[in-house]
Design goal:
- It is a single chain.
- The protein has three helices and five strands, in the order ββαβααββ.
- The protein is an alpha+beta fold.
- It has a single domain, classed as 6-pyruvoyl tetrahydropterin synthase/QueD (Tetrahydropterin Synthase, Chain A, 2-Layer Sandwich), CATH 3.30.479.
- A five-stranded mixed beta sheet has the order 3-1-2-4-5.
Length: 109
């Protein structure tokens, strides 16, 4: 089994839609640290699980310097973002999204 992990840093803003009062309902920005882990039993014809450049293209270009509420059609919590990334990247099995120091969400298959 082959496993690769790509680390990305994305600067983006968001606000959360919640059913309780919270300062997270206000627009705020983060320097998100994202780890994308992909796994395959066999390598592609180029000898890769998935090209690191493709992972960056799928995630970074969609999210970096964006208001995530305008990019996604879901509430942009760290948990929901992690699942979206896992669904978007080929062979992805685990995504870790660090919203801020001490606040980390993980989605894995």
């Amino acid at each position: 089994m082959y496993t690769v992990t790509k680390r990305l840093e994305v600067s983006a803003a968001h606000h959360l839609v919640l059913d309780y009062e919270s300062k997270c309902e206000n627009l705020d920005g983060h320097n998100w640290i994202i780890y994308v882990t992909c796994r395959a039993k066999e390598l592609d014809r180029n000898g890769m699980v998935v090209d690191f450049k493709k992972i960056k293209q799928l995630v970074h270009t969609k999210m970096d310097h964006q208001n995530l509420n305008e990019v996604f059609d879901f509430n942009p919590t760290a948990e929901n973002i992690a699942k979206w990334i896992c669904d978007a990247v080929p062979h992805c099995v685990k995504v870790t999204v660090q919203e801020s120091e001490g606040n980390v969400a993980v989605y894995e298959l």
